[in-house]
Design brief:
Length: about 250
C-alpha cells in the first residue's frame, strides 16, 4: 500500500508505524486490562430513581441531574460522575463506553493512554477537544457516566438507566456526525450486538445523524494492526461530514 505525505503525517499522529515487519511484543504503552481485584465497600444505601424530565433538560439541568444520579448501582463506587467535555454545539460527537479509573478521578472522559490516542486520532483530522469552533472542537461523552468497579464492562441495566442522559446530550449538541467507539456505545446507539468488525466500514444513522462505528482507543492500544482500520473509519467519518450540506 502506498501513502501520500499527508496520510503518512496523519498516521504518525495516530502512532501508526508504516512498513512494520512484525508486531512488537511491547505495544506503545498498551494498557493491560486490570485484573478485577478491587473490592467494593458494601453499602446499604438504596438506589434512587433517575431524575424525571431528562428529555427536556438544558445543559445545566442535565449536568446537575447526572452529578446527583443514583439510579443504578454504579453510583456506589464512583468518585464523581463523568459527564462529558467539549463544544456543546460540536459538529463531531464522540461516544465512548464507561469511565475508567483515571476518568473517575479527573471527571473527564478519555484521559490517560487511551485519551492520548484519541487526541492524536482527532488531531490527525484537524479536530480537538480543546477550545475551538464547533467545526473543529468535538464533544465527547460516554454511554454510562459512572465508573464500573474494577473496570468491568457496564451491565445492560446500567446502560439502560444511563441512556436517557446520552440521548439528551446528543439532542442538545445536534452533531453532524457521531463516532461510536466500542461495543457498548454501539449497543446503546444502534441497538446492535454485532461485533465492531462487522459494523464498521459503512454509514449508520442515529436519529437521522450519520454514525460511524469504530474501535475504542483502549482496544487499539492492545491491537495495533486495527489502528489502520480505525484510520479508515476516521476517513469515512470525515468524508461523511464533509458531504453534509452546510446549514
Ligand atoms: S451510571 Fe448513569 S444511571 Fe448509573 S448512577 Fe451513574 S449517572 Fe446514574
Amino acid at each position: 500500500m502506498s501513502w501520500t505525505e499527508r496520510q503518512q503525517a496523519m498516521l504518525q499522529e495516530m502512532g501508526i508505524r508504516l512498513w512494520v515487519s512484525r508486531v512488537e511484543d511491547a505495544p506503545d504503552g498498551a494498557a493491560v486490562p486490570q485484573p478485577q481485584t478491587q473490592t467494593q465497600t458494601p453499602t446499604a444505601a438504596p438506589l434512587g430513581p433517575r431524575p424525571g424530565g431528562v428529555e427536556a433538560m438544558d445543559w445545566p439541568a442535565l449536568q446537575e441531574a447526572v452529578s446527583g444520579c443514583t439510579a443504578c448501582k454504579l453510583c456506589k463506587g464512583r468518585t464523581q460522575t463523568v459527564f462529558g467535555v467539549g463544544n456543546p454545539r460540536a459538529h463531531w460527537m464522540i461516544v465512548g463506553e464507561a469511565p475508567g479509573e483515571q476518568e473517575d478521578r479527573q471527571g473527564e472522559p478519555f484521559v490517560g493512554k487511551s485519551g492520548q490516542l484519541l487526541d492524536n486520532m482527532l488531531r490527525a483530522v484537524a479536530l480537538t477537544r480543546g477550545e475551538a469552533a464547533p467545526a473543529q472542537q468535538v464533544y465527547i461523552a460516554n454511554s454510562v457516566k459512572c465508573r464500573p468497579p474494577g473496570n468491568r464492562n457496564p451491565e445492560p441495566d446500567e446502560l439502560a438507566q444511563c441512556e436517557p442522559f446520552l440521548i439528551r446530550q446528543i439532542a442538545l449538541v445536534q452533531p453532524k456526525i457521531i463516532l461510536a467507539m466500542g461495543r457498548f456505545a454501539v449497543q446503546s446507539l444502534l441497538r446492535s450486538s454485532e461485533p465492531i468488525g462487522k459494523l464498521r466500514g459503512r454509514v449508520h444513522h442515529y436519529q437521522g445523524v450519520p454514525l460511524i462505528v469504530t474501535y475504542h482507543p483502549a482496544y487499539l492500544l492492545r491491537n495495533l494492526p486495527d489502528k489502520a482500520r480505525a484510520w479508515d473509519d476516521l476517513c469515512l467519518a470525515l468524508d461523511t461530514v464533509n458531504a453534509v450540506p452546510a446549514s
